[in-house]
């Protein structure tokens, strides 16, 4: 029997399973957000050293990966107990302090976890017991990791954007959100729209407004959701970007152009398009038809 049919008899168990899983994944996302950029930096520095022919010294940065070393307190370096790894629970129980040294724990960890929980449960209620929920959960989790890495490092790692693109193309074979044709066209168009806009922008202003990571991210969203969603994604991301950018300028009294990462806006716009994209598109076409 199909696993989806099995849960269809009991949607509440499915929902609880998604909630529990989203807590575990939220914990893993914190690790990815913290470690992946450091792993990439390590790779870059190794490549530069090799290229420059530098010898190895004891002061070289130590390699890290997603599983080692085990999660530890940044203050006292003590390894965390397994239950500490669910920040939403341990943060509340320990009141934001390390169990060993009482050092302050960043609010970021429970925040990422809470976001993972809320978004995952919402996705599961929206799509119900279906393969669409499974794909949408993976989509949501990758988006959360990209958002926070871009906020911290102004970086959208290929590891994640390529993963999202591959996943989008693969799922299109099963017509979950779009057709294979629309996914491929979406991927290519997504990349080209930003690459060409940037080329034109650079020609006129001589400045770089967007990074290659943004092109690859839009390509991934196009592959996942189909080319039809690209205008909505760009529109939503730009509007929220302008609103938050202007608010940021007013609050901080900074009127010079500061580079703000565009990834988080693309992520929010992509997620909205996954959930309500077809309704928004339908509403737009309907309004056009009436006028
Ligand atoms: Zn500690």
Low-confidence stretches: none
List the bound ligands: zinc ion
Number of helices: 10
Which sheet architecture does the biggest sheet show? none
pLDDT averaged residue by residue: 88
- State Rg: 21 Å
Report strand %: under 5%
Distance between the termini: 50 Å
Assign an overall shape: globular
How many β-strand stretches?
0
The class by helix and strand makeup works out as mainly alpha
Task: Work out the helicity level.
Answer: over 70%
- The succession of helices and strands, N to C, reads HHHHHHHHHH
Number of domains: 2
Keywords:
mainly alpha; 291 residues; 2 domains; 10 helices; binds zinc ion; 70% helix
Summarize the structure.
This protein has 291 residues and is mainly alpha-helical. The protein has two domains: 1-121, no CATH class; 130-291, no CATH class. The chain has ten helices and no strands.
Report on the architecture of this protein.
This protein is mainly α. The chain has 2 domains: 1-121, no CATH class; 130-291, no CATH class. The protein is 70% helix and 0% strand. It has helices at 3-8, 11-52, 87-93, 108-127, 131-153, 158-172, 180-205, 212-225, 230-252, 263-290. The N and C termini lie far apart (50 Å). The chain binds zinc ion.
Question: Secondary structure elements and their pairing?
Answer:
Blueprint: H1 3-8, H2 11-52, H3 87-93, H4 108-127, H5 131-153, H6 158-172, H7 180-205, H8 212-225, H9 230-252, H10 263-290
Helix pairs in contact: 2-4, 2-5, 3-4, 4-5, 5-6, 5-10, 6-7, 6-8, 7-8, 8-10, 9-10
Bound molecules: zinc ion (ZN).
């Amino acid at each position: 029997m199909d696993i989806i049919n099995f849960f269809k008899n009991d949607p509440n168990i499915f929902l609880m399973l998604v909630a529990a899983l989203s807590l575990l994944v939220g914990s893993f996302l914190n690790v990815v957000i913290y470690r992946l950029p450091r792993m990439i930096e390590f790779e870059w520095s190794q490549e530069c050293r090799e290229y420059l022919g530098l010898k190895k010294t004891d002061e070289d940065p130590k390699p890290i990966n997603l599983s080692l070393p085990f999660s530890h307190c940044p203050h006292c370096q003590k390894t965390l107990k397994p239950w500490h790894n669910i920040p939403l629970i341990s943060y509340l129980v320990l009141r934001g302090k390390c169990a060993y040294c009482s050092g302050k724990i960043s609010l970021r960890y429970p925040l990422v976890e809470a976001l993972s929980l809320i978004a995952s449960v919402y996705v599961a209620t929206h799509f119900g017991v279906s393969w669409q929920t499974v794909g949408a959960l993976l989509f949501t989790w990758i988006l959360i990791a990209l958002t926070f890495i871009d906020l911290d490092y102004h970086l959208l790692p290929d590891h994640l954007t390529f993963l999202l693109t591959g996943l989008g193309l693969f799922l299109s074979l099963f017509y979950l959100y779009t057709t294979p044709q629309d996914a491929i066209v979406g991927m290519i168009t997504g990349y080209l729209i930003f690459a060409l806009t940037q080329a034109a922008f650079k020609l006129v202003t001589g400045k770089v407004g967007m990074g290659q990571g943004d092109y690859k991210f839009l390509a991934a969203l196009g592959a996942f959701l189909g080319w039809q969603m690209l205008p909505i994604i760009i529109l939503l991301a730009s509007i929220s970007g302008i609103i938050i950018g202007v608010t940021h300028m007013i609050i901080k009294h900074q009127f010079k152009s500061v580079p703000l990462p565009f990834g988080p806006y693309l992520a929010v716009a992509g997620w909205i398009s996954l959930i309500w994209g077809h309704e928004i598109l339908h509403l737009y076409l309907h309004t056009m038809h009436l006028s």
